[in-house]
Design brief:
Length: about 190
């Protein structure tokens, strides 16, 4: 077993794989480092700072990227830095059954449909005063997309089986790995 202190530029051979050791000087975190995260990759650090900059605002956010890149982590970071008093709620739109998507998001009244044995607030009202992540938004059933657009516009939700709208205070974050422009052109996503 050989030991050596590595220096910048040294090569390491492991079987048929070669790794190059690099020393990168990173400034220590400061009190104004609101991201709470540190990255030696400049583009990642820039993205973290942009998320921190928009977190206190009330704008809705769309996170794009392949599966596994950390879209939900980014959404949670936005919520944590937002100062919103409510909770963070995440809904996987790809996992919603078309017949129950509206009830899952908007809530329902007891007896609104077979199986609705009690009143449920739905994900949107559960996230009141907080943040709602609609993960894989491109997979949300088309009919439910139309109702969601109205919720975003009016800032109120009508639970399934109700007639009166309920005001909401929710920060919306949507995430997807799909090309939304292509989905719109194909008629699978509404804007």
């Amino acid at each position: 077993l050989q030991q050596k202190v590595l220096e910048d530029g040294d090569w390491i051979e492991i079987g048929e794989t070669f790794l190059r050791f690099r020393t990168i000087k990173v400034a220590p975190s400061t009190a104004d480092d609101v991201t709470g995260a540190l990255s030696v990759v400049p583009i990642v650090e820039q993205a973290l700072r942009r998320l921190a900059d928009i977190a206190p605002s009330t704008v809705s956010v769309l996170l794009l990227g392949e599966s596994g890149v950390g879209k939900e982590v980014a959404a949670r970071m936005i919520h944590e830095l937002s100062g919103r008093a409510g909770t963070f709620v995440a809904v996987n739109c790809a996992g919603l059954v078309e017949t129950l998507a509206a009830a899952t998001l908007f809530g329902h009244r007891r007896g609104a449909y077979t199986g609705a044995i009690d009143d449920r607030p739905g994900a949107i009202r559960t996230a009141h005063a907080g943040t709602l992540l609609l993960d894989e938004i491109a997979d949300l059933p088309l009919a439910t997309q139309g109702t969601l657009l109205r919720v975003l516009q009016e800032r109120e939700v009508v639970p399934v089986g109700e007639t009166a709208p309920v005001p909401i205070d929710v920060r919306f974050i949507a995430a997807t790995h799909k090309d939304l422009e292509r989905e719109v052109e194909a008629g699978r996503f509404r804007v």
